[in-house]
Amino acid sequence: MTDIPIAAAGSTAIEAPSTARLAFIDNIRWSMIILVLSMHACDTYSPFGNWYYVDRQPSDLPTKLFFGVYQSFLQAFFMALLFFIAGYFSAASYDRKGFAPFVRDRVLRLGVPTLLYMAVIGPLTQYFLSHTWGRGGFGHQWLTHLKDGEWLSETGPMWFCAALLALSVLYGLCRLAGLKEPSFEPRDGRGGGAIAGFIAVMAVATFLVRIVVTEDASVLNMHPGDFPQYVLMYAAGALGYRGNWLLRLSDSSCLRWAALALSLSAILFATLIVFGGALQGDTSSYAGGFNPVSGGKCLWEALVCVGMGLLLLERYRRHFDRQGPFARWLSDNAFGVYLIHPPILVGAAILLHGVVLPAIAKAALLTAIAAVGSFAASAFILRKSPLRAIL
After folding, report:
1. Which residues, at least 6 apart from 50, have a Cβ–Cβ distance to it below 8 Å?
2. Cβ 6 vs Cβ 16: under 8 Å
3. Does the reported pTM lie above 0.90?
């Protein structure tokens, strides 16, 4: 999953990209996985979010604002960036394999781990750690959830892989029907209109969906209110592969447009905090509906999503386009960590219950402990098992 086709950096014409490894993309991926752990650690102690196990204490306004800002900021870009990378991989993989091998590979690498989580890892976490499955014995509860269909909503964090599998199959069907993304070549000093248009489309699409389905509404453990962003970023990843954006977008263009998008997002975010109801404790309008606060939040998310994507591309490509043994080890275990981290993070949170620390410090400590434990479990358990072939 880390062999990424690219074109030579100095080429002047974009043709079929050759196959090489982009270390900075590997580094972005494992960095985003650590942010996933950070988000779930925050869910444990903050007043916001849903997680298997929560250990929440009354919070003052500064703590609530910190968690609200930090979690909203992460949510605005980190999963979308993973969808972008996945779209890039999908276009590359389909070019090499064709429809049937492409779909078979996606089912193996995404579907099998998702089913493993739904059938084993998630149930064990819920029954023995978070105690959200009721009583009567694990076997009894497992069969009950299987019979009543609740298992379909118990993908946990593997909702991402389930959604990615669906998008991958849809992409494969489009390619099979003869549709192919155009080669949209970035040119230095240009492209501002395309970036602005993409941000606008993302914001409007998200706003329209959230009029009907609010951001916090869940369908099969997925949030439809976030999916316009994910689908558009996946499509942008496929376009990015065809146009070789990861190498052709200049550093100056990335920084310029990232600075503009993030500066506008900061102004907009401050406006939403002051006038949207957060300071009065009323956050209902942020989740959706036909109101200007929801529209502003959708625009803010789109600005952060694109701005952070461009900023991370430039920063990692310039400063983290190499891997020593440790970084390569982190990359090799990133997907395993994503799969196995829930029971480790929940178990660590239970052990930390008696530790007296401010909620923010406790979330940071839990992130560190869960990261160490999850990477170790992936390296010394999962990757020593038959799962190694698909992780």
Report:
1. 43
2. no
3. yes
